[in-house]
Amino acid sequence: MQNPTDLFSLSGSVALVTGASGALGTHFARVLHTAGARVVLAARRPEAVAALAENLGPGARAVRLDVTDADAVSAGFDAAEAAFGAPCDIIVNNAGIAVSRPILQQTEADWDSVLAVNLRGCFLVATEGARRLVAAERGGAIVNIASIGGLRILQGVAGYTASKAGLVQLTKQLAVELARHSIRVNALCPGYVETTINREFFASEAGKAVVRRVPQRRLGQPEDLTGPLLLLASSAGAHMTGATLVVDGGHSVNPL
Least C-beta-crowded within 10 Å: which of 27, 82, 128, 242? Predict the structure, then answer.
């Protein structure tokens, strides 16, 4: 019997994380690196992740990658392969944005910008990475960072919820079509996760009201996503593809 701890090892893998300059992207990169992967920190502004790459050491590289630009996506993968001499066999589609306004105040530009990053961008990154793995005759794992917003309504973020619902469905489509190439594709759906960006809101009365609707009565922390991410990225999840893994303290099943 294989040592259960070894199942989560990513030694020998090259992992690419988009949106690596954000709070969750930074956490995901650290987790994958600690598990043994060489990590590509992808961001529109590579200088935003340069310090993180230096902190992680020679097993990390910062690359420019704008998920909305197909040429930039291809160039980002080229840079990753040049850095580590192998295709990225773990891809974490983490880049995402939201525009928060009531739907009657949302503009066409709001809609287009969110869908371009959250859905089209994930499609571009996943398919570019998959083509390279197929060409190299290597399997891999793609983890799409969706949201409970893809499973339920969240007030005031129509483009965000639509894009994340689309990403959940895209995950299933990719999983079926890429299975024959030994590429697994799964979606990780966090609930509300506390970061420096939203901490002030959740300390307000309106924010506290949101937390009260979470059955566990607390916000998620980035560390709550560590195990789920490793499950989907490693051989521990070898028979999982097309799955939607929800980590939200019970929020998405609460009818309130």
Answer: 82
